[in-house]
Amino acid sequence: MRFVIVTGMSGAGKSSVLKMLEDAGYFCVDNLPIPLISTFARLTVKESPNISKIALGIDIRSGQGLDDVESVLAALKQEGYSYEILFMECSTLVLVKRFKETRRTHPLSGADRVDKGIEEERKRLSFLKSRADYIIDTSQLLVRELKAQIDHVFVENGIYHNFIITVLSFGFKYGIPTDSDLVFDVRFLKNPYYVPELKKETGTNKDVQDYVLSSPSAHPFLDKLLDMLVLLIPGYIDEGKNQLVIGIGCTGGRHRSVTIACQIGMRLANMDYVVRVEHRDITK
User: Fold this and answer.
1) Which residue among 16, 100, 105, 201 is least crowded, i.e. fewest CB within 10 A of its CB?
2) How far apart, in whole angstroms, are the C-alpha atoms of residue 251 and residue 264?
3) pLDDT for 202-237, tens place per residue?
4) Considering the domain 2-154 in this protein, what is its CATH number?
């Protein structure tokens, strides 16, 4: 029996995840009153032998019942029920945008601003996040990427790492990515833009990469940057951060930044970190 409790921020994708799990054969129930969780567990786990996978949605709509969640979960453990907690996270900036686009009202905002409701929800759910077995941040995830992660953990029973590193190339002429935690400027490297046969290519092209990496300072820069990241990343993890966005910028975001982002992504992946490499301005 696999018993998954799905919770997290409103607008972060909890309902979508429950639908994905339902499609994968899970028996799903959303927004069950907190006092009924123990009864639900008994009926499904012990008295329904045909049900082998369960997903239960809990969120801020439970209101005052959230105060009882910790004691209810502790009681489940004491009674011998094994469960996993999946917490759906998302940045406040992205959540505000989602609520505005859908014209939905945040459960805690009332007549106040949406961002205030989001921050209050974040405080109230912090105890669940601290107990979560899995934290998925959907701030930058496409639906297909979210589904791939859900399938990997809850269908294929794969290992999931809560800490995800995104290495993002960009062009300074289009602005610094607002979600970057760290930003590095690689405009000091040789620029393929001024080489006629490389100008229309991108940093995913081997000839472009070889040209950029032939810069005298390219490899020392990569080595020192990696040393710094190796020093910083454990600290971010210890502080409870579950996503790190590393911005690598050049002038237009097509050649040098793409090359270096690919190199950093490859090196971090070889160190067993979960890494996504994205190129924001590569087609501009």
Assistant:
1) 100
2) 19
3) 999 999 999 999 999 999 999 999 999 999 999 988
4) 3.40.50.300
Sequence ranges of the domains in the chain: 2-154, 164-279
CB-based contacts of 191, cutoff 8 Å, min separation 6 = 250, 251, 255, 256
Contact 152, 160 (CB under 8 A): yes
Q: What's the order of all strands across the beta sheet hosting 53-57?
A: 27-30, 53-57, 2-8, 84-89, 134-137
CA dist 4 → 28, 49, 163, 166, 240 (Å): 9, 17, 20, 27, 22
Rounded CA-CA distance 124/121 in Å is 5
Whole-angstrom CA distances from 61 to 9, 107, 176, 228, 256 are 11, 7, 36, 43, 48
Dihedral angle of Cα 261, 141, 228, 237, to the nearest 10 degrees: -160
Q: Are 63 and 35 in contact (CB under 8 A)?
A: no
Quick check: 99 and 87 in contact, CB under 8 A? no
> With contact defined as beta carbons under 8 Å apart, do 150 and 20 qualify?
yes
Query: CA–CA separation, 280 vs 105, rounded Å?
Result: 31
Mean pLDDT of all residues in 151-170 = 85
- Specify the amino acid at residue 227: D
Q: Look at residue 64 in the predicted model and tell me its pLDDT.
A: 64
Kindly report the length of the chain: 284
Residue 259, exposed/middle/buried by CB under 10 A (0-12, 13-18, 19+)?
Answer: buried
Q: In this structure, which amino acid lies at residue 133?
A: D
